[in-house]
Design a protein that fits this description.
By secondary structure, the chain is α+β, with helices and mostly antiparallel strands. The chain has 5 helices and 9 strands.
Length: 206
């Protein structure tokens, strides 16, 4: 009886080891995280969802995230404190960014950019897209897209100096920046190839 018990114990060990081998050979597939953006034919696509954050609240939120604001965006008459900065809640925006490389050096201006956006049936974004996109992407990610600047093509907002601006994600010089582009400079200004121009492909609500 003792010998039989020992044999049973040994068989049990072999059975356990065989099961362990099968477990070790089983490959567990962990799905890769979805990319933050995608690019097709020179257009970058990504999504952001609004949460009702006001302009003044964005000022604090952006600073807490370690980003910087341009002089005409900060408090006391800044763009984020304008009545024209209107927050929304629960709207998911599919943003489409026309890369500067889509245009020749001679026609990378507001007229040709607007015509290209109309050709794709893109629409004008809200200014808050600048804050949502700045929070979403690091400078390194913007550069990986091939962008030094991402202009948010919202309706211009008048700053305390009386000039009109659009918000812009800026990786140049100091980096981690939201700056303001002065649209009063004129439509004939030619942008660099490292610029991107953000519009809306579509919006959905929760």
């Amino acid at each position: 009886m003792k010998r039989n018990s020992t044999l049973a114990f040994i068989k049990g060990l072999f059975s356990f080891n065989n099961n362990t081998d099968s477990i070790e050979k089983t490959q567990v597939t962990i799905p890769e995280p979805s990319p933050k953006w995608e690019e097709k034919d020179g257009i970058i696509y990504f999504e952001v969802t609004s949460d009702g954050t006001t302009g003044p609240e964005w000022t604090n939120r952006i600073y807490q995230k370690g980003f910087r604001l341009g002089s005409f965006i900060k408090p006391h008459g800044g763009l984020l404190h304008s009545d024209d900065f209107k927050p929304t809640t629960g709207i998911t925006t599919r943003v489409a960014v026309l890369k500067g490389q889509l245009f020749d050096d001679s026609n990378r201006d507001l007229e040709h950019i607007a015509a290209a956006s109309a050709g794709h049936n893109f629409t004008i974004p809200c200014a808050e897209i600048a804050c949502l996109a700045r929070e979403k992407f690091t400078d390194q990610e913007l550069k990986a897209m091939g962008l030094e600047y991402m202009f948010i093509m919202h309706e211009p907002i008048i700053a305390s100096n009386g000039n009109s601006y659009q918000l812009c994600l800026d990786t140049s010089i100091v980096g981690k920046f939201i700056s303001g582009y002065e649209v009063d400079r004129g439509p004939e200004v030619v942008f660099s190839e490292g610029c991107g121009f953000a519009y809306v492909l579509y919006e959905t609500t929760d």
